[in-house]
Task: inverse folding
């Protein structure tokens, strides 16, 4: 899971710089372009300079390095077409930043002066909206309202102070439906300057996204409004989503932003958490209560904290069942209880690869070896220590281990359950089923109405001979 960051750098850029609030003397040189083309989870970016903070880990992602220039943190984002491996054997043609979708997480400290160079390598104009930030109106990134669009081949500069700590997002605000449907988005974390709200051991950052990509194809259908068939965390789908690996009794924080077109009830097994932050900042301790599921609406962010005090491999997923499945059709009929073996036998004479599906439910699809189109991941997949997990989409795990080192984010493998702690088959006697004859009665009887014959007479109509 972990590896040393292998950055590809490219100091040359095309285009001009436009920002009326930035002194020309500070633009004598532009930060190098740092790219990342690996879908592995990269180690936390420990700050090499500037003020200290506890860095986040972005599952299947990374944090963007910066340089200090006269007390200003300078970053360089490149908007460009990217290839994103969403799971093994499935790569999508997306748009993103610095070689990835989502783009790299940007981390700063409350009070930092920040300068972001944005180079556009897309075939159309773009912009960047810093979702949730307090900043000068002209830096808000809404094309046509606050700034002209960044033309293809040009570089613009955004400059503002990170005024409040919390978790935010960035995404285009020009041709937004197309560009966000293609995967253009990223996370932003502003750490508190006094560390009062930062008493945690592990900090993870997840961005929710949705795509409509037909099986066998690679490019999202950007005109889709509701019927998405792939639900992703950091543009990865299960089983391609890395687990969140923590040490027993770690204080864990997960920051989750939603840039899909629907809400997501995110559910954690085996633990309770509190919502410790929203888009507006940290929640007051007196307003928090224990939960195991929190609903994250469109455009919202939720920060959850919990104590990882239960060892095991705990499921962590969206609780909308169709969001834990991979690419599927929306017009597939329900065939539960239909015995079509005879029909299937006749069809296989004409179509040898035809297979009976879903007459017992959909779990049997995980047992099939049906040929799939190239560049397609099964709808329900994932092999666990006890068999098929029958999941997809927005599903992962929190792995809690006593022997996980404090700074170790590597996958510890499957949990070794203590003897007697796994559900088992019962082979003893079974009692007879007892059912109450009084169960299910309605609160009052249905009204009875007389069935009268109604005669209809049509005036003005003469029967012809």
Result:
């Amino acid at each position: 899971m972990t590896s040393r960051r292998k950055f590809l750098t490219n100091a040359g850029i095309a285009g001009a710089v436009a920002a009326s609030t930035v002194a020309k003397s500070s633009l004598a040189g532009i930060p190098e372009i740092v790219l990342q083309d690996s879908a592995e989870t990269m180690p936390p970016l420990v700050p090499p300079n500037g003020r200290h903070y506890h860095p986040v880990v972005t599952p299947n992602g990374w944090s963007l390095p910066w340089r200090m220039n006269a007390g200003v943190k300078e970053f360089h984002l490149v908007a460009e077409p990217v290839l994103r491996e969403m799971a093994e054997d499935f790569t999508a043609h997306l748009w993103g930043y610095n070689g990835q979708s989502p783009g790299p997480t940007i981390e700063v400290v409350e009070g930092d002066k920040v300068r972001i160079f944005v180079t556009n390598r897309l075939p159309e104009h773009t912009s960047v909206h810093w979702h949730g930030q307090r900043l000068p109106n002209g830096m808000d990134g809404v094309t046509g309202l606050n700034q002209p669009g960044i033309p293809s081949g040009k570089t613009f500069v955004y400059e503002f102070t990170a005024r409040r700590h919390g978790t935010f997002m960035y995404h285009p605000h020009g041709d937004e439906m197309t560009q966000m449907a293609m995967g253009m988005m990223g996370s932003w974390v502003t750490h508190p300057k006094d560390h009062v709200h930062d008493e945690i051991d592990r900090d993870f950052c997840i961005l929710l996204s949705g795509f409509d990509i037909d099986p066998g194809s690679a490019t999202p259908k950007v005109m889709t409004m509701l019927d998405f068939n792939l639900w992703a965390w950091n543009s990865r789908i299960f089983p391609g989503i890395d687990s969140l690996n923590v040490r027993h009794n770690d204080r864990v924080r997960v920051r989750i932003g939603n840039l899909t077109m629907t809400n997501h009830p995110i559910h954690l097994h085996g633990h309770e958490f509190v919502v410790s932050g929203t888009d507006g900042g940290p929640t007051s301790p007196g307003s928090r209560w224990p939960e195991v599921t929190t609903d994250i609406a469109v455009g919202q962010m939720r920060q959850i904290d919990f104590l990882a005090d239960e060892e095991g491999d705990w499921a962590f997923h969206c609780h909308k069942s169709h969001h834990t499945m991979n690419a599927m059709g929306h017009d597939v009929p329900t065939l539960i209880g239909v015995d079509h073996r005879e029909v299937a036998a006749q069809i296989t004479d004409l179509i040898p690869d035809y297979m009976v599906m879903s007459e017992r439910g959909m779990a049997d699809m995980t047992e099939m070896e049906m040929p799939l189109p190239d560049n397609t991941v099964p709808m329900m997949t994932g092999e666990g220590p006890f068999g098929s997990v029958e999941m997809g989409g927005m599903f992962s795990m929190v792995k809690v281990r006593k022997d996980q080192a404090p700074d170790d984010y590597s996958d510890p493998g499957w949990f070794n359950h203590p003897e007697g702690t796994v559900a088992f088959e019962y082979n003893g006697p079974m009692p007879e089923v007892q059912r109450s004859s009084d169960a299910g009665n309605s609160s009052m009887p249905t009204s009875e109405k007389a069935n009268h014959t109604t005669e209809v007479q049509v005036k003005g109509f003469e029967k012809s001979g």
